[in-house]
Q: What sequence folds into this?
């Protein structure tokens, strides 16, 4: 830790000590921050005047078939106060930034994917300060050397990657060869909203007499074996037909079992002491886990796949994945996989819903893992600062200062994180009090799989299967180990090439 950062922390400590002493002398009112008031700790952020210019987040995103914006969310800009908790918190956060730095925060939709972004680079049209897009769509910007290293901003002391609002626990997941070109902080809720978890129907638990999954979590007994046992407990004819169909009741709405591997602590690669990676999906533990999981989750007596539910279905304009999950909300399934963001679809369930993290491998596993979707929104910084003529203060210093301040203001009590997580997710969308404790576990367990984000295994032309694709093939094949061996040499080479490629990049 450098001297300036130590001095900054010392100032924070002195401020906190002073506040504590005032409280002990009965001066509690003086330390209560009114809504909308700027915290005294703001004085620890460098001053600046950016002359009323615009700070622009270029957004790469798209909608579902029903028109819902997915994966990036609306976390950057708000036009005005409208009474919606998250919107109002974003507006107040940006207004505080405007007051401190005399800068206007703007969001500009520039397209859906890399090709749309590439047009701006080829035209030398840098009219934005930060890029915000689906993780997998940002990957080509990394390998084409279009982005600036967040660690360079940290070394220049424009940002502080050790701060909680930069999510240090996930920083290692997104740092390859000592460089960090994609990252998320508390400006966006994407890392929380798209962390994996399981939802269950408590009425089915009661009707069948199964153990409460949340009680199993409390007892450190929520394991893969327990989960699979519960899935196999649900097979009930509801429609009166002789064949078992999507209109009956089953244990799980299935989309494959790979996420359950991540819940068991399995990663696509293993990181060595030298920072390099070796392929891990062919290890005995992984092969054995896939064999165990697929034995249950490919059995149509207990599991209905997305494809089974969508086959011949009239979704009546509903997004197809929301349509699939509607079978959970109408009592056809004990479990469905999802993320905290998808609670918006379940809050009107007649008997409510329960939340649990993905199960552990066994009781000796030291923590839960909540895989973050590889499409979840991430930030990237262009490797050329904006060059439009009316942005004279544009610089990496300005970019870092604004990102740092916005992230901090989002994390303040009552701001964006609280508006989304505490107010919206934990209060407005919950019908079972215990869910809040389970969501806290999910919130603390998020993890990124960088090889899925970077699509390791694909060729420059877009062909070839990624490590994740091969893992799915292993799950869907009869010979798990032999399917891995067919691709092992190619994937090992691709992994080394990706590491060396990123290691060679420079700003």
A:
């Amino acid at each position: 830790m450098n001297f300036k950062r130590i001095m900054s922390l010392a100032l924070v400590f002195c401020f906190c000590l002073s506040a504590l002493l005032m409280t002990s002398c009965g001066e509690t009112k003086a330390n209560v921050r009114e809504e909308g008031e700027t915290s005294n700790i703001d004085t620890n952020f460098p001053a600046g005047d950016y002359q009323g210019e615009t700070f622009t987040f270029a957004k790469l995103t798209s909608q579902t078939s029903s028109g819902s914006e997915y994966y990036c969310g609306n976390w950057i800009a708000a036009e005005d106060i409208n009474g919606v908790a998250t919107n109002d918190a974003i507006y107040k956060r940006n207004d505080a930034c405007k007051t401190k730095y005399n800068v206007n925060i703007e969001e500009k939709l520039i397209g859906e994917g890399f090709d749309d972004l590439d047009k701006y680079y080829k035209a030398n049209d840098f009219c934005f300060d930060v890029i915000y897009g689906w993780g997998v769509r940002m990957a080509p910007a990394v390998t084409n050397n279009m982005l600036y290293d967040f660690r360079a901003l940290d070394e220049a002391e424009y940002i502080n990657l050790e701060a909680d609002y930069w999510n240090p626990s996930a920083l290692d997941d997104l740092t390859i060869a000592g460089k960090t070109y994609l990252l998320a902080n508390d400006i966006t809720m994407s890392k929380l909203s798209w962390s994996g978890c399981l939802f269950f129907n408590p009425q089915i638990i009661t009707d069948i007499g199964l153990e409460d999954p949340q009680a199993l979590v409390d007892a450190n007994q929520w394991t893969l074996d327990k989960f699979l046992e519960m899935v196999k407990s649900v097979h009930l004819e509801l429609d009166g037909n002789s064949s078992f169909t999507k209109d009956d009741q089953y244990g799980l709405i299935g989309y494959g079992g790979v996420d359950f591997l991540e819940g068991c602590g399995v990663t696509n690669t293993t990181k060595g002491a030298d920072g390099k990676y070796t392929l891990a999906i062919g290890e005995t533990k992984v092969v054995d886990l896939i064999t165990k999981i697929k034995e249950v989750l490919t059995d149509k007596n207990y599991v209905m796949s997305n494809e089974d539910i969508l086959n011949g279905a009239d979704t009546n304009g509903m997004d197809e994945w929301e349509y699939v999950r509607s079978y959970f909300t109408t009592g056809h399934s004990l479990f469905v996989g999802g993320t905290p963001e998808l609670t918006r679809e379940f809050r009107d369930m007649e008997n409510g819903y329960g939340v649990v993290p993905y199960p552990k491998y066994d009781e000796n596993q030291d923590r839960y893992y909540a895989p973050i979707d590889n499409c979840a929104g991430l930030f990237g910084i262009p490797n050329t600062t904006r060059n439009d003529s009316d942005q004279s203060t544009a610089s990496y210093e300005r970019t870092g200062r604004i990102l740092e301040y916005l992230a901090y203001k989002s994390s303040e009590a009552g701001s964006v994180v609280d508006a989304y997580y505490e107010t919206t997710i934990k209060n407005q969308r919950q019908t079972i009090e215990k869910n809040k404790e389970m969501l806290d576990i999910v919130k603390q367990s998020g993890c990124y799989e960088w090889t899925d984000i970077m699509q390791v295994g694909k060729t420059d032309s877009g062909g070839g299967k990624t490590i994740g694709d091969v893992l799915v093939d292993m799950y869907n094949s009869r010979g798990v180990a032999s399917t891995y061996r067919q691709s092992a040499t190619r994937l090992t080479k691709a992994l080394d090439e990706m590491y060396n490629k990123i290691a060679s990049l420079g700003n």
The first strand starts at residue 53 and ends at 60. Residues 197-371+455-504 form a domain with the D-Maltodextrin-Binding Protein; domain 2 fold (CATH 3.40.190.10). DSSP finds 20 helices and 15 strands in the chain. Residues 480-504 form the longest helix (25 residues).
